[in-house]
Amino acid sequence: MAPSIKSIFTAYTEEGQGERESALGYALSLAQHASAHLTIQAAAMRYAIPASLVGDFGVAFVHAENRRIGALAERFAELARTSAGLAGVTSTIETPQLVYAELGERLVSHARVHDLSVLDLEKDAAERDRGLIEAALFDSGRPVIIVPPGCETFAAGRLLIAWDGSAGAARTVAETRPFLKGAEVEILSVTGEKDLSRLVAGAELAPHLSRHGASVTVRNVAVSGGNDVAETIRQAAADFRADLIVCGAYKHSRLREWLLGGVTQSLLKATPLPLLMSR
User: Fold this and answer.
1) What stretches of the chain show up as alpha helix (H) in DSSP?
2) Model pTM greater than 0.85?
3) Which of 91, 214, 240, 279 could form a disulfide with 180 if both were Cys (CB 3.0 to 4.6 A apart)?
4) Domains held by the chain: number
């Protein structure tokens, strides 16, 4: 019997802008589809600045800003609570006020005890450097779906699996099992940037996915025309009319702890579709 999804986690961090992204809607849609419980963390990022640095006026300003951000997070939580009720999704909602250093730790602790997490794609480099997506990918031990703006409805009828035969790719493919029955799957191997000849070929993966009820095709594409692997994956997903891109996540550690591999970093900078990633 294929594994099912019973618990989903999504996190929203209010930093004072009052912006709304797509992860909540996508997570609600997935929870409704899977009849799963949804845990929502609507965190308010709290500023903690010593009085010795800002003086009495600065302290009062920081307290006022923390109250404002907290109120915005509470407003988002109320919206999430109402939306979950209307969707018939059972949910748990929390609104912690956390300083910057606590955000990743709290997110990871929740992600570890759920089947998967749903997070918004970070829009700019400063947000990506915050490391919340990286923390979820590399520290939680659980899969993450990263959702770009405008994608609020879960769909997995057509899956593009970016396959390089590695252990990381195999672990990520294992996380697709709840979605495979009745799905159309394309296994994409991109050649030209590294040697895949000694790794498990996509044609060898295909029978395994077929046994789980998927209709599978295999495609090998060489990088060309100035494109990199990530752009080739994006183009292939568009050609296949995929609902979801499945890709292993990779990092390097020579320069800094959370320096992502080139393909992972490029996909996280710009993806037209939700990404299912795992490490």
Assistant:
1) 23-34, 51-87, 100-111, 125-130, 132-139, 167-174, 177-180, 202-211, 229-240, 262-269
2) yes
3) 214
4) 2
